[in-house]
Amino acid sequence: MHILITGAAGMIGQKLTAALVARGHLRGASITGMTLADVVPPTLPSGIAGQALAVDLSNPDAARSLLETRPDVIVHLAAIVSGEAEADTAKGYAVNLQGTIALCDAIAAQQDYRPRMVFTSSIAVFGAPLPPVIGDDVPPKPLTSYGAQKLMCEVLLNDLSRKGVLDAVSLRLPTICIRPGKPNAAASGFYSSILREPLIGERAKLPVSEDTRHWFASPRSAVGFLIHAAEISTESLGLDRALNLPGVDATVGAEIEALERVAGPDAVALIDKVDDPTVGAIVGGWPQAFDPQRALALGFSAETDMDQIIQVHIEDELGGQIPVQDLAEGGRQ
Amino acid sequence: MHILITGAAGMIGQKLTAALVARGHLRGASITGMTLADVVPPTLPSGIAGQALAVDLSNPDAARSLLETRPDVIVHLAAIVSGEAEADTAKGYAVNLQGTIALCDAIAAQQDYRPRMVFTSSIAVFGAPLPPVIGDDVPPKPLTSYGAQKLMCEVLLNDLSRKGVLDAVSLRLPTICIRPGKPNAAASGFYSSILREPLIGERAKLPVSEDTRHWFASPRSAVGFLIHAAEISTESLGLDRALNLPGVDATVGAEIEALERVAGPDAVALIDKVDDPTVGAIVGGWPQAFDPQRALALGFSAETDMDQIIQVHIEDELGGQIPVQDLAEGGRQ
């Protein structure tokens, strides 16, 4: 079992690599090698045969070189993120569309080869007007270049799966929460920030009203989706390989209530309400909730409430401790 | 008013060129030049300024050269047809997807330029399971590479229209009937053949049952759609520039009844029923009928019954005469 991960140096790519190394097997076979690729060189875990490569996927030669090991499973995470794809149209299409096409062409160029391809699509394929709860039959209508590029790749992968070039599963990932690391400029950043910063005793800005609703899964669930998508039988998917995924439907108010239950009122007091109508307008067009029957029937699972999502962050990123409580207790001593 | 037509040497391209020359104006301005492009050199009508070029659109340099005249309107007809796109996956994507992308890139490379782009999509973006009548909210799910490529282009053109790179209208053309010329190997060929051949006293094969239902418009209506799409205001289209179009919802039985009304029983007697389950299976997955409310509200129109579709063929291709009747009358003399 050889696995290729594109975008392996990113947050999800690193967690996926670690999870695969920890479990040691995939699709009933021992993992014998990994090819990790990204624009910056990823780190190959110790004890794993394979290669870590800095490549530009939109270069067809680079894509071909990645496929020379004929990986059994390809997890294609590499992408220009939403904000950059919107600002730099050419770069977004070059990487998010042409990079995927180059990978598919490189697969098609191999003889007698039909790998499982797990593709990270996004709920950004959907745009307003949307029903409050999005069923599996709601048509995707992207409102961003990122969403358009992800949808074009879904259509391509459906067609190439139908033709037997590859065997794809496209995952419309929920917004990942709590994203570890520092606050960033992404419009969605506050959804993580209002939990992540208070948990370590730092202040966070809330730019939208508390009734703003959105769809979340933890980084741990995202990794679980990717591994499950590599393992499932695709027979029941038929010709539509794109899946809406389970997640947690939560308002900002519900996030804050969960933070209070898990970390106490001192944590909540660190959130500053600073209205930002620009951010409000952007996130107002995003999906609020899904009813992902197809994915649930296939055994995909995620957290079921925001308390669990916070708990995953505490376990996976904070060593099981809540710093803000230690800080508060320290302050009271 | 300078107009670029890609695929100008094809049947629709030639008819569109002739219709534009005949009307002399578009979008309220006199037509002062045309650029006609195809893989084989098109014929520039006499008295029209411009150029007729043999180009391979999937070559980015070729696309750039086409845009040097900064046409006000681009009618993008060039495509590998359904059967060939299915058989030759690489060629289909090279022309139908990358050719369109190259055209868009060439547009984006021009400064202060936002042409109207009329793109010929297809009802092949839809695939079974489908409702008997397809409303404007039914999600496209292509079952062929051709349909997938057309859908990917629609998504691209929606995104680039939103960003102001161009101003697109994507037309999901009905099956064109009666297609002039000789019988061909296309699975849809019999829909035209069972009318076209009997009208000139030749035999035609019917490979499916008479209750097979499909969606048609004449070549004259197709040209009308393209010209109307060049002229409409796109404001009311919003972010979804793809339109289902009006047409005639007819069974094969209704086609034959119309043939009898227009050309008599001698014409109908020239149809040989020769079941072909392969053709039946292909066309069984195709759309049967549409309720194209958005296009109707925008003023698109087509024939309303099969008699009219036959009449258009007689007027535009047969000089207003029905040869089979002359033959029959000749025979009775």
UniProtKB/TrEMBL annotation, chains A, B:
Domain NAD-dependent epimerase/dehydratase: 3-197
Keywords from the named record: Carbohydrate metabolism, NADP
Top-level taxon of origin: Bacteria
InterPro entries per record: DenD, Epimerase_deHydtase, NAD(P)-bd_dom_sf
Pfam families: Epimerase
Protein name (Swiss-Prot/TrEMBL): NAD-dependent epimerase
Organism: Jannaschia pagri
Taxonomy of the source species: Bacteria, Pseudomonadati, Pseudomonadota, Alphaproteobacteria, Rhodobacterales
